[in-house]
Amino acid sequence: VQLQASGGGLVQAGGSLRLSCAASGRTFSSYDMAWFRQAPGKERDFVSFIRHTGSSTYYADSVKGRFTISRDNAKNTVYLQMNSLKPEDTAVYSCAAARWGNSGSLYNTAYYNYWGQGTQVTVSS
Questions:
Q1: DSSP letters of 90-113?
Q2: By the 8 A CB rule, do 19 and 11 touch?
Q3: Could you list the mean pLDDT of each consecutive 10-residue stretch along the chain, which spans 125 residues?
Q4: 45 — phi, psi (to 5°)?
Q5: For burial by CB atoms within 10 Å, which of 2, 64, 76, 88 has the most?
Q6: What order of strands is seen across the sheet that includes strand 17-23?
Q7: Residue 56 burial by CB count (10 A; 0-12/13-18/19+): exposed, middle or buried?
Q8: Is the backbone of residue 86 left (phi > 0), alpha (psi -120 to 50) or beta?
Q9: What is the pLDDT at residue 100?
Q10: Count of CB atoms situated within 10 Å of the CB of 46
Q11: Are 57 and 69 in contact (CB under 8 A)?
Q12: What are the respective helix, strand and coil percentages of the chain, to the nearest 5?
């Protein structure tokens, strides 16, 4: 699976962005998907997760109520709608894919088998 993230940019605090992650291959619907982010000088942090069926979603506490993850299996794409953006949301956002049935914690990077290249999100105050 190859992942291509897009949709990042520069936005003022309080604004919105929608990230997309397009996946190659015909088995996208069998992969759990997630978004992580990495700010300069910091570790890569979990942002959000969606089960391969779309039946379950999880969010980091810092984005809960502001971000929404979704997927369209017909388009091989996962989305991250980001509203009420804050300067502390500034980071490179990457999407990741995990084969269904992987062991471990979905909050950890080790759970995922494939990574996209990342897209920069910058929120100005």
A1: -EEEEEEEEETT--S-TTSGGG-S
A2: no
A3: 96 98 90 96 97 95 98 96 98 95 92 96 97
A4: -115, 145
A5: 76
A6: 3-6, 17-23, 77-82, 67-72
A7: exposed
A8: beta
A9: 79
A10: 21
A11: yes
A12: 5, 50, 45
Q: What is the DSSP letter of 103?
A: -
Cα 4 from Cα 73, distance rounded (Å): 15
Q: DSSP code of 106?
A: T
Q: How many CB atoms lie within 10 A of CB 13?
A: 13
| CA atoms within 13 Å, Cβ hemisphere of 6 | 4
Cβ contacts of 63 within 8 Å, gap of 6 or more: 47, 48, 82, 89
Amino acid at 79: Y
Q: What is the pLDDT of residue 26?
A: 74
- Is residue 86 packed enough to be buried (19+ CB in 10 Å), middle (13-18) or exposed (0-12)? middle
Residues in the chain: 125
Residue 47 CA from chain centroid, whole number: 6
